[in-house]
Amino acid sequence: QATFSFEKARVRKDSSEKKLITDALNTNRFLKRLEPHQIQDMVECMYERTFQQGSYVIRQGKAGNHIVVLKEHGLEVFQQNKLLSSIPVWTAFGELAILYKCTRAASVKAITSVKVWAVDRAVFQNIMRVTAQTRQEQY
Ligand code: CMP
Q: pLDDT, tens digit, for every residue of 6-49?
């Protein structure tokens, strides 16, 4: 039986914001393979975080604790301190370490103060687990 309650992790947001987050998740190469209701649950559970200029959203080689959607310009991707790219607004990232249970493949650093939407790994894993359990019950 599924014991996880999405109600607790749900964060209020307006429908236009939800649409932007949904589209960001659905254009990510890996996350777009999830089922629509899983994407929807992720959107409901995302919460806002601010990263100050110069701080790291993600550090290469560390464990992954959240999947992130960028709301405004100001994040850059680095590998071994070499600049690879800047992340476009309304891009989902930080999915690799969570989906594949590996360490972070790159660092992501704030070049200005930025706001993001984030979902914690534990919540994401619960969303996946609840679906698996439902499937099993239907089998
Ligand atoms: P993850 O490895 O969890 O954490 C770093 C994230 O940076 C990674 O997931 C991707 O979402 C993102 N990223 C953007 N560009 C690259 C790149 N060239 N190589 C690896 N990760 C990248």
A: 777 888 999 999 999 999 999 999 999 999 999 999 999 999 99
Of residues 96, 108, 27, 20, the one with CA closest to residue 60? 108
Q: What atom of ligand 1 comes closest to residue 103's alpha carbon?
A: 2
The answer to whether the CB of 67 is under 6 A from ligand 1 is: no
CATH number belonging to the domain at 12-138, selected among 3.40.50.2000, 3.40.1160.10, 2.60.120.10, 3.40.50.150: 2.60.120.10
Q: Ligand 1 centroid to 49 CA: how many Å?
A: 19
Q: ipTM beyond 0.90?
A: yes
Q: Contact at 8 Å (CB) between 100 and 124?
A: no
Q: In whole angstroms, how far apart are CA 40 and each of 72, 85, 126?
A: 21, 28, 13
The residue to mutate among 30, 51, 56, 58, having the most atoms of ligand 1 within 8 angstroms of its beta carbon, is: 58
